[in-house]
Amino acid sequence: MSPRDLASRLRDTAGQLPPGPVRLSTLAEAHGGAWQASLLVLLAAPCLLPIPGVGSVLSLGLAVLGLLLCCAHRAELPPRLGRLSLPREGASRSLTLLARFYEFIHRITRPRMTLLAGPGARWWLGPMTLTMAALIFLPIPFGNVLPAVSLMLAGVALAAKDGMLMLVALTVSIGALAASGALIALGWQACAALLGLL
């Protein structure tokens, strides 16, 4: 399914939601096999905002998603999560926003090197998501930006089957790991120097 087809499908679903709360399983079905890509984008995007506590909370959701991605045989939403529900208005708004998002990425991405962004991508995307979630959870100044960007790029790449973009996401994740490691090392040296002075 192309991002344009997915956008059309999400928009149709948003207009046909039944009254009352909407289960997450219904929203996942609307995405077909792209619900994991959408969750990556939805959970990672707010981590770019300089709002205290957002990264810590959403990193837990990203970690759960990383575990699900590690289970390459599991393409469906776990039943326990599927039974959770959202208000109809919020669910409809989320689907409409995602439809606009997929229409936009359809213009800037294309299927290429699809082996890197197909079902087999879960073998490294799962561990990568877990690692980036851990970095987002850590209280590192501006440490959320690169991990969140890498996960958003990975979500877009997964939805568009764009292997080139997936390589960019992996590169950014390596940069995030290196930058966070350097900041942790500098912080450790600063603390050691301060304790030495004391």
From TrEMBL:
Superkingdom of source: Bacteria
Residue intervals passing through the bilayer: 57-75, 132-158, 164-197
Pfam families documented for this protein: ExoD
Keyword Transmembrane: yes
Keywords, in A-Z order: Membrane, Transmembrane, Transmembrane helix
Signal peptide: none
UniProt protein name: Exopolysaccharide biosynthesis protein
Origin species: Pelomonas margarita
